[in-house]
Design brief:
Elements: H1 2-23, E1 30-36, E2 40-43, E3 51-54, E4 64-74, E5 81-86, E6 92-96, E7 102-105, E8 117-124, E9 136-148
Antiparallel strand pairs: 1-9, 2-9, 3-8, 4-7, 4-9, 5-6, 5-8
Length: 149
């Protein structure tokens, strides 16, 4: 009796595994890369210089961006600023820069190919909240791009 129960249980488990494999959707693999800009400085309503970072080689035949995050290392005394990001496809998106060091998500790149050069710069708002004679914004940004392939 015990041998029969063990065989039935083994057959049942094998059947369940086959059923799960055939009805479960195939999940796409994911990859990501992170690159850090030079220190970006903008003053009195102006733009910083542009910092170009490159993805390096990405995995897969048809990679597609699923998420873009920016880790912003904000210098103390930084006044309000806007971050601009240009993808390798030429799409430009902007987001208000955080006043403290931290991570922000920027949308609008989903579905694009992540491979190639990315350009990042900031623009100072022209308003000083920190008592600076001239409004100054200083930040270093780490771009993290997650993609499926």
């Amino acid at each position: 009796m015990r041998k029969v129960t063990k065989r039935v249980l083994t057959a049942f488990m094998a059947c369940m595994m086959i059923c799960l494999m055939t009805v479960s959707p195939v999940l796409a693999a994911t990859g990501n890369f992170s690159k850090t800009t030079v220190k970006l400085n903008a003053i009195n309503g102006g733009n910083s210089r542009e910092s170009r970072v490159t993805s390096g080689s990405v995995l897969g035949d048809d990679p597609s961006i699923t998420k873009v995050e920016l880790f912003c290392n904000v210098s103390s005394g930084t006044d309000p600023y806007t971050i601009y990001v240009q993808s390798p496809s030429g799409t430009v998106r902007s987001i208000s820069g955080p006043s403290r060091t931290g991570t922000v998500k920027i949308s609008g790149f989903e579905g694009e190919n992540p491979e190639g050069p990315w350009t990042i710069w900031i623009k100072n708002s022209g308003i000083s909240y920190n008592g600076n004679m001239y409004p100054v914004s200083t930040v270093t940004i780490t771009l993290k791009v997650t993609y499926s392939y």
